[in-house]
Amino acid sequence: MKDPETPEPIPERRLYKRVPILVSVQVHFVGAGFVASTANLSAGGVFLCTERRLPPGTRLELKFSVPVLTKYPIRAQAEVVREGESGPRGFAVRFVDISAEDRELLAELGEKADTLLGVEEIEPED
Q1: Under DSSP, is residue 120 helix (H, G, I), strand (E, B) or coil?
Q2: Would you say residue 121 lies in a domain?
Protein backbone atom coordinates (compact mmCIF):
# COMPACT_ATOMS: atom_id res chain seq x y z
CA MET A 1 0.00 0.00 0.00
CA LYS A 2 1.26 3.43 -0.91
CA ASP A 3 2.03 5.93 1.86
CA PRO A 4 -0.07 9.09 1.22
CA GLU A 5 2.63 11.17 2.95
CA THR A 6 5.33 10.19 0.45
CA PRO A 7 5.34 12.48 -2.59
CA GLU A 8 5.55 11.01 -6.08
CA PRO A 9 9.03 11.34 -7.62
CA ILE A 10 9.21 14.07 -10.24
CA PRO A 11 10.17 12.57 -13.61
CA GLU A 12 13.28 13.95 -15.32
CA ARG A 13 12.10 16.37 -18.04
CA ARG A 14 15.40 17.00 -19.77
CA LEU A 15 15.52 16.13 -23.44
CA TYR A 16 19.32 16.32 -23.71
CA LYS A 17 22.21 15.09 -21.59
CA ARG A 18 24.10 17.73 -19.61
CA VAL A 19 27.88 17.62 -19.72
CA PRO A 20 30.16 19.34 -17.17
CA ILE A 21 32.41 21.47 -19.33
CA LEU A 22 34.12 24.83 -18.85
CA VAL A 23 34.02 27.21 -21.80
CA SER A 24 33.88 30.98 -22.04
CA VAL A 25 30.60 32.49 -23.26
CA GLN A 26 30.02 35.99 -24.60
CA VAL A 27 26.62 37.13 -23.35
CA HIS A 28 24.73 40.12 -24.82
CA PHE A 29 21.35 41.53 -23.86
CA VAL A 30 19.54 44.87 -24.22
CA GLY A 31 22.52 47.17 -24.66
CA ALA A 32 24.87 45.34 -22.31
CA GLY A 33 27.23 42.42 -22.39
CA PHE A 34 29.56 40.36 -20.25
CA VAL A 35 31.59 37.17 -20.32
CA ALA A 36 30.55 34.14 -18.28
CA SER A 37 31.75 30.57 -18.08
CA THR A 38 29.77 27.36 -18.27
CA ALA A 39 29.24 24.86 -15.47
CA ASN A 40 27.45 22.46 -17.80
CA LEU A 41 26.17 22.41 -21.33
CA SER A 42 23.57 20.50 -23.33
CA ALA A 43 21.82 20.78 -26.68
CA GLY A 44 18.91 22.37 -24.81
CA GLY A 45 20.74 25.01 -22.80
CA VAL A 46 23.59 25.92 -20.49
CA PHE A 47 24.28 26.93 -16.90
CA LEU A 48 26.25 30.20 -16.89
CA CYS A 49 28.51 30.93 -13.92
CA THR A 50 28.47 34.64 -13.12
CA GLU A 51 27.87 37.07 -10.29
CA ARG A 52 25.32 38.88 -12.47
CA ARG A 53 21.67 38.39 -11.70
CA LEU A 54 19.12 38.32 -14.47
CA PRO A 55 15.44 37.55 -13.95
CA PRO A 56 13.79 34.56 -15.58
CA GLY A 57 12.49 35.46 -19.02
CA THR A 58 15.46 37.71 -19.91
CA ARG A 59 16.45 37.12 -23.55
CA LEU A 60 20.17 36.75 -24.32
CA GLU A 61 22.44 36.36 -27.31
CA LEU A 62 25.21 33.82 -26.66
CA LYS A 63 28.42 33.09 -28.53
CA PHE A 64 30.85 30.35 -27.48
CA SER A 65 33.24 27.76 -28.86
CA VAL A 66 33.66 24.12 -27.89
CA PRO A 67 37.03 23.19 -29.45
CA VAL A 68 36.44 19.42 -29.25
CA LEU A 69 33.36 19.87 -31.46
CA THR A 70 34.06 22.61 -33.97
CA LYS A 71 36.47 25.39 -34.86
CA TYR A 72 33.76 28.00 -35.41
CA PRO A 73 31.73 29.68 -32.64
CA ILE A 74 28.26 28.50 -31.76
CA ARG A 75 25.65 31.26 -31.63
CA ALA A 76 22.27 31.00 -29.95
CA GLN A 77 19.39 33.06 -28.69
CA ALA A 78 18.54 32.00 -25.15
CA GLU A 79 16.20 32.76 -22.28
CA VAL A 80 16.97 32.73 -18.56
CA VAL A 81 14.87 30.03 -16.89
CA ARG A 82 16.16 30.09 -13.30
CA GLU A 83 18.90 31.25 -10.99
CA GLY A 84 21.23 28.69 -9.44
CA GLU A 85 19.79 27.39 -6.17
CA SER A 86 22.84 25.48 -5.02
CA GLY A 87 26.33 25.01 -6.34
CA PRO A 88 27.90 27.65 -8.55
CA ARG A 89 26.40 31.14 -8.64
CA GLY A 90 24.73 32.00 -11.92
CA PHE A 91 21.67 31.04 -13.93
CA ALA A 92 20.33 28.42 -16.30
CA VAL A 93 19.26 29.34 -19.81
CA ARG A 94 17.46 27.40 -22.50
CA PHE A 95 18.21 27.84 -26.16
CA VAL A 96 15.22 29.35 -27.95
CA ASP A 97 16.89 29.83 -31.34
CA ILE A 98 19.93 27.79 -32.35
CA SER A 99 20.79 26.30 -35.72
CA ALA A 100 19.91 22.65 -36.22
CA GLU A 101 23.58 21.95 -36.97
CA ASP A 102 24.76 23.53 -33.70
CA ARG A 103 22.07 21.73 -31.66
CA GLU A 104 23.17 18.46 -33.27
CA LEU A 105 26.82 19.16 -32.38
CA LEU A 106 25.86 19.83 -28.74
CA ALA A 107 23.71 16.68 -28.65
CA GLU A 108 26.74 14.77 -29.94
CA LEU A 109 28.78 16.23 -27.09
CA GLY A 110 26.22 14.80 -24.65
CA GLU A 111 26.27 11.40 -26.31
CA LYS A 112 30.06 11.17 -26.64
CA ALA A 113 31.23 13.14 -23.57
CA ASP A 114 33.03 10.22 -22.01
CA THR A 115 35.05 9.70 -25.21
CA LEU A 116 35.55 13.36 -26.18
CA LEU A 117 36.19 14.78 -22.72
CA GLY A 118 36.76 11.86 -20.40
CA VAL A 119 33.70 12.82 -18.32
CA GLU A 120 30.28 11.40 -17.67
CA GLU A 121 26.87 13.00 -17.91
CA ILE A 122 25.60 14.89 -14.86
CA GLU A 123 23.06 12.81 -13.00
CA PRO A 124 19.71 14.50 -12.24
CA GLU A 125 19.41 15.80 -8.69
CA ASP A 126 16.91 14.08 -6.40
Answers
A1: coil
A2: no
44-72: b (≥16 Cβ within 10 Å) or e: bbbbbbbeeebeeeeebebebebeeeeee
Evaluate whether residue 76 is within a structural domain.
yes
Q: Which residues contact 83 (CB under 8 A, 6 or more apart)?
A: 53, 56, 90, 91, 92
* 44 in a structural domain: yes
Separation of alpha carbons 44 and 93, rounded Å: 9
Number of domains in the chain: 1
How far is residue 21's CA from residue 124's CA, in Å, rounded to a whole number?
16
User: pLDDT tens-digit profile of 53-72?
Assistant: 899 999 999 999 988 778 89
Angle at 31 between CA 90 and CA 18, to 5 degrees: 30
Domain housing 71: 24-111
The model carries a pTM of: 0.78
For residue 29, being part of any structural domain is answered with: yes
